[in-house]
Design a protein that fits this description.
The protein is an alpha/beta fold. Helices cover 49% and strands 15% of the residues. The strands form 2 sheets. The chain has a 5-stranded parallel β-sheet with strand order 2-6-1-7-8, sandwiched between helices. The chain has a 3-stranded antiparallel β-sheet with strand order 3-4-5, covered by helices on one side.
Amino acid sequence: MKKYVIAIDGPAASGKSTTAKLLAKKLKYVYIDTGAMYRACALETILKNISLKDEKSLQIMLDSIRIDILYSDKGNILLLNGDDVTKRIREADITKLSSEIAVIGIVRTKMVDLQREIGKNGGVIMDGRDIGTVVFPQADYKFFIVADVEVRAYRRWIEAKEKGEILILSDVEKELNWRDQNDSNREISPLKKADDALEIDTTNLSVTEQVELIGKAIERGKNAEIL
């Protein structure tokens, strides 16, 4: 049986990562957290005190960086040069920096090469902002997940609260608006819906409903429509 490449794109906190993880588990596919890979790069620049404007130092860092994604029932474990940085890369300073580093050409080239290598044999689900347009434009299935910014901000706020982080909801919404603008207007691989992607608005959907919708679309075949 053929194993598909499934691309799920969309803005921050739209539900794409959670949906991708659960769908991967359901299909017994490998989930590749592409956003975490950029976050790892951002963390490495902090650890090595590298300016994002210093292209030479960035290239040296990229030539030696090692990113490994380990899979467990409790979720992905990300190793940066052998060290577990799963929690560290989700902190606020990394969130902002990762969005900035993701627009740098040499960084994207390196990450895209790694992502294509991981997914070349299929059986993978990747989520991000340019998976269906740049990383895997020939993906077997493409989905673009959206949601109202107020709902996305609340989701992110609740997620942080459950982890013991104290955030101000209005600040979270401001950050998401900034990221939407930055990701959509950047010159390199902007956030964009692929022409052949199915769009899903998750504003009023539960995570379970999101996974079911995409799962049914895949079952119906490549020309399926979201009902």
